[in-house]
Amino acid sequence: MGYPRPRPVHLAAKLLRIRQALNLSQSELVERLGVEIDYNYISKYELNKNEPPLAVLLAYSRASGIPVARIIDDDKEII
Predict the structure, then answer these.
(1) Under a CB-based contact definition with an 8 Å cutoff, are residues 64 and 21 in contact?
(2) pLDDT tens for residues 12-21?
(3) I want to staple 49 with a disulfide (CB 3.0 to 4.6 A). Which of 4, 11, 44, 60 is the partner?
(4) Residue 72 φ/ψ, nearest 5 degrees
(5) Is 77 contained in some domain?
(6) For the domain that residue 59 is a member of, what is the CATH number?
(7) Per-residue pLDDT tens for 20-63?
(8) Of 68, 67, 66, whose CA–CA distance to 52 is shortest?
């Protein structure tokens, strides 16, 4: 089978910083991202309860202008 992929340690904090830098509420961010998710998922991502799927990470990247690799790489700063 294989081993589960390790979750990026700083991902939740980075997603929160992106939303704050865009000066958006969680529901406003969902609209900006243009993805079909409930705004409650944003809270779960920011609290490290859930990890966003690739499509959502790509939407964060497009909305913020920050490359996906920079968002998910624990060794890179975003802002």
Answers:
(1) yes
(2) 999 999 999 9
(3) 44
(4) -90, -15
(5) no
(6) 1.10.260.40
(7) 999 999 999 999 999 999 999 999 999 999 999 999 999 999 99
(8) 68
Question: Could you identify the residue written with the tokens 């939407």?
Answer: 59
Please indicate, yes or no, if residue 29 is contained in any of the structural domains. Answer: yes
d(Cα 72, Cα 55) in Å, to the nearest integer?
13
What is the spatial distance between Cα 24 and Cα 29, in angstroms, rounded to a whole number?
Answer: 6
φ, ψ for residue 41 (rounded to 5)? Answer: -65, -30
Q: Which amino acid is at 58?
A: L
Residue 2 has a pLDDT of 66
C-beta of residue 16 within 8 angstroms of C-beta of residue 43: no
